[in-house]
Amino acid sequence: REAKMETKILSFLGLLYVACSCAFPVVPEKEKEDMQFKYLENFYDFQDEKRSLFKAENLDRMTDKIREMQSFFGLEVTGELNRKTLDMMKQPRCGIPDVRSYSTFPQSPRWKKEDVTYRILNYTPDMLEDDVDEAIAKAFQLWSSVTPLRFTRLYSGEADIMISFAAGCKRTSLYDEKHNFLTPPLFFLVHGTLAHAYPPSRGIGGDAHFDEDENWTKFTTNNGYNLFLVAAHELGHSLGLGHSNVFGALMYPIYMAVDTRNYRLPQDDIDGIQALYEAPTELLPREEPTEMTPMRPEDCDPHLTFDAVTTLRGEILFFKGSYVWRKSPFFSVIEHDTISSFWPSLAAGFDAAYEVDKKDRVLFFKDDQYWAVSGYSIDSGFPKPIQNLGFPTSVRKIDAAVYDQNTKKTYFFVGSKYWSFNENTQSMESGYPRKIAADFQGIGHTVDAALQKNGYFYFFHGSNQYEIDLKNKKLVRIIKSNSWFNC
Ligand SMILES: *[C@@H]1O[C@H](CO)[C@@H](O)[C@H](O)[C@H]1NC(C)=O
């Protein structure tokens, strides 16, 4: 299982050469370069324009990103990857990208009430339960002492902030002992880091996860991480704060072992949280799904169908109406969310979605329009009409889309036919549309949603999914549409 996960990470990163280098203690220069690349890509939104003919331009942009990082961390700004910069890249850190001069998340989400609840779902075996309770309570106190917020602990049911310990990737740094880059860039949820938390919203919003592969401690020591300190940082995210570039601030993205007896919240963090909560909070009723919004179906409902399915930075996202199910390669639990908690300006009810992972881009389709997103942000210039992709005006909407990593082509399904779009040339291929049944043996019906994963296509139709061999396009087996959910 471990080996399988490793392969997944590696193939996801497209770093197959890292797989080879694991066997050798020496890391060639070229690979080091690529690892640094990955770091910048992860945390500084640096996009390697693989298709760019102008390598020099790419190098310039990389230098800029290194400068940005050096400036963020208060290092000497040289644009060069010197020893100090490399060491900074290897620090254990929190899994949210650094944004210079940013103190909140996009759209500044915050709790629109003063009474916020939390629940501790499980405990780490590293500490006494009472000590865990105390560390968490003290971390909340730091924030409640400077805001109108009141935190109440729940022992059952759904709290606003759910706190849990879970074993993730067994890494504390972005590199292993052999300096191999290991962290897959997941959706603002970077594994192999100490912990992560989600900004305020319903569902998973506000929740904080701590990596059980770490040694959690009551006091600051050399062989573990002070739970109070990490929890206080993560709860900052749970309340809506992003990272700070002020060295010594609690929201600085790198763990700093400081003595936490008589710990006081640094001024920069007080300024940040008061920018979000200083104003008297208007007590809005908790937003409940209205009659117009049907309830989210149960994961294991045998009749469950989906509107669209896509991968996103290593996870699989399943869409239906305004709901999203997230399947991470590291956790067996399925996370539930709403589309609006990720992309507030996108309308729910997608027809299709697909990811071109090399470009870190996901495209969403609804009626005759489509949007491109990278992580949280919607690319500018969208929505665009689907005719821009080469569809005739007679096509009013598409049923499903899937990107084939092997051929670099995207297939669009419309009724009983499909189209093939060349992602390299950004044009529709001639000779299409063709009958789905003519090329995908055993598929004699429309496709609701489509996914490519582990060497197979999965075509969803009603409550079933059809597993199709990527190479020969033959039907392998039919499984239930929710078979990813451990039902
Ligand atoms: C975890 O930290 C505690 C406290 O410093 C220490 O006693 C213990 O040996 C550490 N455990 C591991 C596995 O490092």
From TrEMBL:
<dbReference type="GO" id="GO:0030574">
    <property type="term" value="P:collagen catabolic process"/>
</dbReference>
<keyword id="KW-0865">Zymogen</keyword>
<feature type="binding site">
    <location>
        <position position="401"/>
    </location>
    <ligand>
        <name>Ca(2+) 5</name>
    </ligand>
</feature>
<feature type="binding site">
    <location>
        <position position="207"/>
    </location>
    <ligand>
        <name>Ca(2+) 2</name>
    </ligand>
</feature>
<dbReference type="Pfam" id="PF01471">
    <property type="entry name" value="PG_binding_1"/>
</dbReference>
<feature type="binding site">
    <location>
        <position position="351"/>
    </location>
    <ligand>
        <name>Ca(2+) 4</name>
    </ligand>
</feature>
<feature type="binding site">
    <location>
        <position position="237"/>
    </location>
    <ligand>
        <name>Zn(2+) 2</name>
    </ligand>
</feature>
<feature type="repeat" description="Hemopexin">
    <location>
        <begin position="395"/>
        <end position="443"/>
    </location>
</feature>
<keyword id="KW-0378">Hydrolase</keyword>
<keyword id="KW-0677">Repeat</keyword>
<feature type="binding site">
    <location>
        <position position="196"/>
    </location>
    <ligand>
        <name>Zn(2+) 1</name>
    </ligand>
</feature>
<dbReference type="InterPro" id="IPR006026">
    <property type="entry name" value="Peptidase_Metallo"/>
</dbReference>
<keyword id="KW-0862">Zinc</keyword>
<feature type="repeat" description="Hemopexin">
    <location>
        <begin position="347"/>
        <end position="393"/>
    </location>
</feature>
<feature type="binding site">
    <location>
        <position position="307"/>
    </location>
    <ligand>
        <name>Ca(2+) 4</name>
    </ligand>
</feature>
<dbReference type="InterPro" id="IPR036375">
    <property type="entry name" value="Hemopexin-like_dom_sf"/>
</dbReference>
<feature type="binding site">
    <location>
        <position position="211"/>
    </location>
    <ligand>
        <name>Ca(2+) 3</name>
    </ligand>
</feature>
<dbReference type="InterPro" id="IPR002477">
    <property type="entry name" value="Peptidoglycan-bd-like"/>
</dbReference>
<dbReference type="GO" id="GO:0008270">
    <property type="term" value="F:zinc ion binding"/>
</dbReference>
<keyword id="KW-0482">Metalloprotease</keyword>
<feature type="binding site">
    <location>
        <position position="160"/>
    </location>
    <ligand>
        <name>Ca(2+) 2</name>
    </ligand>
</feature>
<dbReference type="InterPro" id="IPR033739">
    <property type="entry name" value="M10A_MMP"/>
</dbReference>
<feature type="binding site">
    <location>
        <position position="205"/>
    </location>
    <ligand>
        <name>Ca(2+) 2</name>
    </ligand>
</feature>
<dbReference type="Pfam" id="PF00045">
    <property type="entry name" value="Hemopexin"/>
</dbReference>
<dbReference type="InterPro" id="IPR021190">
    <property type="entry name" value="Pept_M10A"/>
</dbReference>
<dbReference type="Pfam" id="PF00413">
    <property type="entry name" value="Peptidase_M10"/>
</dbReference>
<keyword id="KW-0272">Extracellular matrix</keyword>
<feature type="repeat" description="Hemopexin">
    <location>
        <begin position="444"/>
        <end position="487"/>
    </location>
</feature>
<feature type="binding site" description="in inhibited form">
    <location>
        <position position="94"/>
    </location>
    <ligand>
        <name>Zn(2+) 2</name>
    </ligand>
</feature>
<feature type="short sequence motif" description="Cysteine switch">
    <location>
        <begin position="92"/>
        <end position="99"/>
    </location>
</feature>
<dbReference type="InterPro" id="IPR021158">
    <property type="entry name" value="Pept_M10A_Zn_BS"/>
</dbReference>
<keyword id="KW-0732">Signal</keyword>
<feature type="binding site">
    <location>
        <position position="243"/>
    </location>
    <ligand>
        <name>Zn(2+) 2</name>
    </ligand>
</feature>
<dbReference type="InterPro" id="IPR018487">
    <property type="entry name" value="Hemopexin-like_repeat"/>
</dbReference>
<feature type="signal peptide">
    <location>
        <begin position="1"/>
        <end position="23"/>
    </location>
</feature>
<feature type="active site">
    <location>
        <position position="234"/>
    </location>
</feature>
<feature type="binding site">
    <location>
        <position position="209"/>
    </location>
    <ligand>
        <name>Zn(2+) 1</name>
    </ligand>
</feature>
<dbReference type="InterPro" id="IPR024079">
    <property type="entry name" value="MetalloPept_cat_dom_sf"/>
</dbReference>
<dbReference type="GO" id="GO:0006508">
    <property type="term" value="P:proteolysis"/>
</dbReference>
<keyword id="KW-0479">Metal-binding</keyword>
<feature type="repeat" description="Hemopexin">
    <location>
        <begin position="297"/>
        <end position="346"/>
    </location>
</feature>
<keyword id="KW-0106">Calcium</keyword>
